[in-house]
Each structure stands twice: as C-alpha cells, then as structure tokens.
Design a protein that fits this description.
The protein has strands spanning 6-10, 14-18. It is mostly beta strands and 46 residues long. The protein has a two-stranded antiparallel ribbon with strand order 1-2. A hairpin with a 3-residue loop joins strand 1 (6-10) and strand 2 (14-18). It is elongated. The model has no long low-confidence stretch (mean pLDDT 77).
Amino acid sequence: MPDEPITFTDLVRGELTFTPENVPDYGILRANGARSTPWSTRSTTP
C-alpha cells in the first residue's frame, strides 16, 4: 500500500480521499478458498 493518501474522482460523489491506514489490503481468494497468486503459478506447457 502507498504511504500517501489515495485520491480519485467519483462521478456521483466527487473527489474522494482515503488515508492508507483506512484501506485494507485484502488477499484475493478463489471460490474454493485457495489464494489466487498469478505471479507464482506454473505453466503446464513446456
């Protein structure tokens, strides 16, 4: 996560700013509960 606040413009609410400590860093899980880590998957083709 970045150390500086995250700011973006929402079409409905306007400019929004979040501090890093208020934005959780969730891991992505597959439907079966396994972690989704595309950078560590192996290719099955030689």
